[in-house]
Input
Amino acid sequence: MILRRLLSLYGLLFFVFVYAPILLVVIYSFNANTLNMMIWDGFTLDWYRQLFGMETSLTQSATFVDSTDQLWGAVRTSLIVALSTSVFSTVCGTALALAVARYRFRLARFYRTLMMVPMIMPDIVLGIALLIFFITIGMNLSMLTIIIGQSTFLISYVFVTVSARLAEVDTSVEEASADLGATPAQTFRKVTLPGIAPGILGGWLLAFIISMDDLVITYFIAGTGNTTLPIHIWGLLRRGIKPEINAIATLMLLFTLVIAAAGLYFRSRRQK
Amino acid sequence: MSLARRKLLQLVGLLGVPTVFLLIFFFGPLLIMLVYSFLTPGLYGGVDWIFSHLNYGRILGWADTRYEKFDPVYIAIFLRSLKLAALTVLASLAVCYPAAFWISRMRPGMRDFAIFLVTLPFFVSLIVRLFAWVLILRPTGFLNQGLMGLGLTGGPIEFLYTDFAVILGMTYVFIPFMFLPLYGSIEKLDMAQIEASSDLGATRFQTFRKVILPATLPGIVGGSIITFIPALGNFIVPSVLGGAKVLMIGNLIEQQFLSARNWPFGSALAMLVMSAVLVLLIAQFRLAKKEAQS
Output
């Protein structure tokens, strides 16, 4: 009995450990104290107003110079990269998953193992390998190199997500569709695709979130002038710790939570 | 067109683009990195296409000519990274094992929600989660404020920029990596076996050691490996929470590429990390095979 109580206490502490740091960032993003961000000094929205370029009562020294324009530039870059990468990875990952699950060929098992490699590759190794590669073949570092670089490992994430879904879908329905005279294209569009759509959507969302958050690989292959959001924040952290970061972090948190909730919503709809 | 031929065409259509893409942009770079690790660094950045094994010698001890000096500091940094990654694995196990056990005993609805709550932070930006720990650990941070408020310490303790901060940070960001494999094997525990063990007079500790631990070993090994790999090559956590004092192999590699501009040496260091990962994976593969046979 005592052991069980202790275990529950430990479990609750575990969740405090997981969520308290994140919660602190959110709470202190509303702190009005401009001198010492650790001491609560009343509620304010100034840090958010500052990010959106609105009038604030903040002094020059309380904020980072020029950071707002850079921030929105970084957000734009991140969104373009994440959208392109996630769409490309989803198409490639889904195609591979379909081939491995629905066709019999000798290399199928080989592909399954192979697709694990990019996921376990330490990101710094892949990052520098891509950097060397792009420089050696004379490709200028740009948004395109970021998109290519991130896709190399995100394809695997989509592959795994879609494969899991394909394994659940009953193949007899596809066979029935073919027996009833549907062309392969019709069967694919009307039977297979709707069946695995939740998996494709899930893989796409996962790829999108991971792409938005990727720091290490992007850091090496972004070159100058293509700052993504995580790299921008990393740069801010190196310039100093200012309350502005709390507000940016909270907005990012909100954004990922909305996407995660959307993903969950689609998953629960699939189960009905 | 025959059916077999059409199937083949479909297969090529599905596999073609992704396969070519990965061959060029995933395996190509790794291959070039391997080649680079055997080249000579140029005087002003760049490389000279002359074969050299001294990049490895500089790390492992056989180079002492020209500027390619052997320095035991590199192997020391590598060993230090192995140590920090191993400690991170141990800390993660200590944090996640009891929690996974607790959650596995919940009602099904609660259980799913609890697992969702554990995985959710994985989707929160890494840099945001690390920033949170900067706020907590810095001299004027919450931890020091709390400790001083309780009168436990007179002045602020330097938590930030220490090994402790790096291990704590890595443990925190890799929680889902350790938790999910652990949970997977704990969930499958046979409660009847545990009850039988205590009915037969085993103490709680004996039951844990002889029944629970062996049954959950696959989860422990799996979680440890996928936590260890990203921890070993990490350079974000040590550079945010470790400052300049805690140098890991990841920071060293980054320096070779972005400030020292010695790409061949950096590639050799990266190959070192990769071989460590490979050894681990082969060991796990062998273990899993043995288990499947018995």
